[in-house]
Amino acid sequence: xxxxxxxxxxxxxxxxxxxxxxxxxxxxxxxxxxxxxxxxxxxxxxxxxxxxxxxxxxxxxxxxxxxxxxxxxxxxxxxxxxxxxxxxxxxxxxxxxxxxxxxxxxxxxxxxxxxxxxxxxxxxxxxxxxxxxxxxxxxxxxxxxxxxxxxxxxxxxxxxxxxxxxxxxxxxxxxxxxxxxxxxxxxxxxxxxxxxxxxxxxxxxxxxxxxxxxxxxxxxxxxxxxxxxxxxxxxxxxxxxxxxxxxxxxxxxxxxxxxxxxxxxxxxxxxxxxxxxxxxxxxxxxxxxxxxxxxxxxxxxxxxxxxxxxxxxxxxxxxxxxxxxxxxxxxxxxxxxxxxxxxxxxxxxxxxxxxxxxxxxxxxxxxxxxxxxxxxxxxxxxxxxxxxxxxxxxxxxxxxxxxxxxxxxxxxxxxxxxxxxxxxxxxxxxxxxxxxxxxxxxxxxxxxxxxxxxxxxxxxxxxxxxxxxxxxxxxxxxxxxxxxxxxxxxxxxxxxxxxxxxxxxxxxxxxxxxxxxxxxxxxxxxxxxxxxxxxxxxxxxxxxxxxxxxxxxxxxxxxxxxxxxxxxxxxxxxxxxxxxxxxxxxxxxxxxxxxxxxxxxxxxxxxxxxxxxxxxxxxxxxxxxxxxxxxxxxxxxxxxxxxxxxxxxxxxxxxxxxxxxxxxxxxxxxxxxxxxxxxxxxxxxxxxxxxxxxxxxxxxxxxxxxxxxxxxxxxxxxxxxxxxxxxxxxxxxxxxxxxxxxxxxxxxxxxxxxxxxx
Length: 758
Known about the structure:
Blueprint: E1 58-59, H1 71-80, H2 91-100, E2 114-115, E3 127-129, E4 137-141, E5 147-151, H3 154-181, H4 184-188, H5 192-202, H6 209-217, H7 219-223, H8 225-248, H9 271-284, H10 292-306, H11 308-319, H12 375-385, E6 393-397, E7 408-412, E8 424-430, E9 436-441, E10 451-453, E11 457-463, E12 469-475, E13 490-493, E14 496-499, E15 501-509, E16 520-528, E17 539-545, E18 548-556, H13 566-572, H14 581-589, E19 595-601, E20 605-609, E21 626-627, E22 645-647, E23 653-656, H15 680-693, H16 700-711, H17 715-719, H18 721-728, H19 735-749
Parallel strand pairs: 5-8, 12-21
Antiparallel strand pairs: 1-2, 3-4, 4-5, 6-7, 6-23, 8-9, 9-10, 11-19, 12-18, 13-14, 15-16, 17-18, 19-20, 20-22
Helix pairs in contact: 3-5, 3-8, 3-9, 6-9, 10-11, 13-14, 15-16
């Protein structure tokens, strides 16, 4: 089997393996640590055991896996700039790749990537630890400080993954669990910035502890044996994480120095914390759409400037919702999301869509500015929020066009530049033979490998951002029949005036050391649609439509189902369930977050676009707000076979750079870039160029060259500028203009490169 992983140079990522949106589970700390079997002997990290790739899989995740900086490490760095081993060792190879990609050979790949084989080569083990006297698990670290975790069962592996996550990303995870729960101020101390982030986070999910627990408890009934297994693994993961938290209480060297920015040391985790992280990641990355209000504001602006008729034409032209000239990843047509004749009565236009919403959890506490926000915590959140949503790419070439007769792939999810990285590397194996996966995962959910490789295959992803979120306007009413209040909490549902649900989230906030003021209690008031309403979600705020008050609600298909996608990720690590492209697609189909997934093994390449995608009435405009009173309800969800998917490729290769998935698959309401010029064309052109240079047969290094070249050219310089220059080619221009045009022509002829000379 021949696999190659690599990344676009624009952002640090793990080739062929990167995690975004993964679902997870939650529960309380009632489950005991897995009991150690009598006589269990920790196995060695046997190099390439159950690994059919023969060392042909490579990856890199800059700057490095090591993420623990304790007080002594911090003092040493401040004294002389010394960093902990393994914290920056993957940065230089990654930085050098753009300048070494031309003429690259397979023999040179190891200068820019790390081999990603199961286990650790002899002589490369740096340490071994057994994190529990009761759990049957051992953790080995290699020379890049990547954890290789071996357990007797899946639960033991999950325990070890939790412990390793604590070692590598504890403070980062702590920030994210509090951010996801909407109680960051209680962890870092009150500040206006932290409090506002708490408000905003609650509008993603706003779950109570009982609701989080219910999502986990529903797994066995909903998914049978796989659901039971997933639930059990989450409990074991949290137990392992808590084992590390307990260790920090007796060994200060295990505690990240960043906790000086918090109000206290790390506290024990529960499975509901995992739900909070999954909600945060899924609500940010695993979605598309939800911009109907912003679209309405733009549409109203265009109406004011050009009138209703021209506004509609201009808006549709900008939208590029179903452009037949847009490049696609799949060749076959997969119709989705194109409306028929729109019934204007289904569209809910606010009076002024650009006006800020009123009400809702938007006001901060008096004097919240007495304490500055935590800089380390803000950096963690920035690494999540600023992670590129649409910069990931993938290039897969089939066996027929490969130099050695096996498919090859270069896949690069984009995750930005941060220390520690927002992802973590890991190698997970159960000695009973039921769990084998290596790759990258999101801290706080890394008992599953979210992008990576199995025994005989590998997979990766790019963001699909397909439309699984709608913004609804709920008509406010007065149950007594009077005039509705501007921020009223009753609304019309199927002709009845029904109450919203309401929840108060309280957090006690103590000033951190050096802060000012007394402890405060912050109350966040969150309203939701009625329990009987098909539209479920938190109220984002209030505005008016037709002069009457309305509430804005985000309807997300994965709401109250944050854990469900874990079933798909878990399947990929179980050899008996995933062993070829067909069985892999079953896992992809179980993932409810919206991603483009790519697969490669020794014979096949494949593609599947996941997501719990609602089917909307054909008389609804999917780009503008709709009424939530029952007239525009979803009519089920897209079938498994209705999703964009493809095995093999008529062209001999599959590419993606967050472009359109297939012909007739419409863009989400927040997507305005699926037109005739899209950067995936640069990938296609470079693959075609490499095929022409090498007689139609590519090596892994050739494909890396194609990826790096495409990543370092200007899209407009390639696709638009030559057309513009052709318009003025025979015109008489002043000497200065002619000189400028000559420079542009020279640049366009060279392919529009943007790479800086080395």
